[in-house]
C-alpha cells in the first residue's frame, strides 16, 4: 500500500507539472487535491490512522470518476470536444502541453492573418507527432485509474485489518476489565494472631498439670 501511494504521488506530481505548462486549470486543481489526499493516505498508512485511509478511499472514487471524464473528454465521447476551453475554465485558448511537444512533434508558427492573433493556436502548425496529444492524455488518465484502483483495494484491506484488531482489542479489554474487577474486590483486613495465644491453644491441659506437679 505504501509503495502504491508513493507511485501515485510521483505520477500526480509529474502530471501536475505538464498541466501547469499547458495552463490546464481544471486538471491542476484536481491534481493538487489528489496530491494532498495521497499524502494523507501515506501518513495514515505509516502512522496507522484508519480515518485518514478512509478519506483516501472516498477520494479515490471521485478521482477515478474524474479521470474517466478526462478520457471521455479527449476521445470526444458523448458530445464532448477536446477543442473547447473546458479544461482552462474558458480563461485562455491554451490546450494540452502535449499538443505541441509530444514525441516527434515539429512546431511551426505560421504568419498571422489580419484578423488573427499570434497566440491563437490556429496559427501554430504541428506535424510529425508519433502519438497524438489526446491519446497521451488518455494514457495518463488510464494509468491514474489503474493505480488508484490498486490503492483502493489495499486501503480497504488495511481498514478491514484495523477494524478486526479493534474488535479483538475490545474483547481482550473486556476480559481485562473483569479480571481487574476481581483483583480489586474489597478485602476486609484480618487481625494478626499473636504467638502467645497460638501456643496456649495448642497446649494440652493434661500436660500442663503434669508439668506443675513436677
General description of the model:
It is a multi-pass membrane protein. Keywords: Cell membrane, Membrane, Transmembrane, Transmembrane helix. It is found in: Cell membrane. The chain crosses the membrane at residues 25-46, 53-77, 141-159. This is Sodium/potassium-transporting ATPase subunit beta-1-interacting protein. This protein is mainly alpha-helical and 214 residues long. It has a domain at 2-96 and 132-165. It has helices at residues 2-21, 25-47, 50-74, 98-101, 133-183, 195-202, 205-213, and strands spanning 106-109, 124-127. It has a two-stranded antiparallel sheet with strand order 1-2. Helix 2 runs antiparallel to helix 3 (50-74). The longest helix has 51 residues, at 133-183. 19% of the residues are buried. Mean pLDDT is 77; it is low at 174-187 and 196-202.
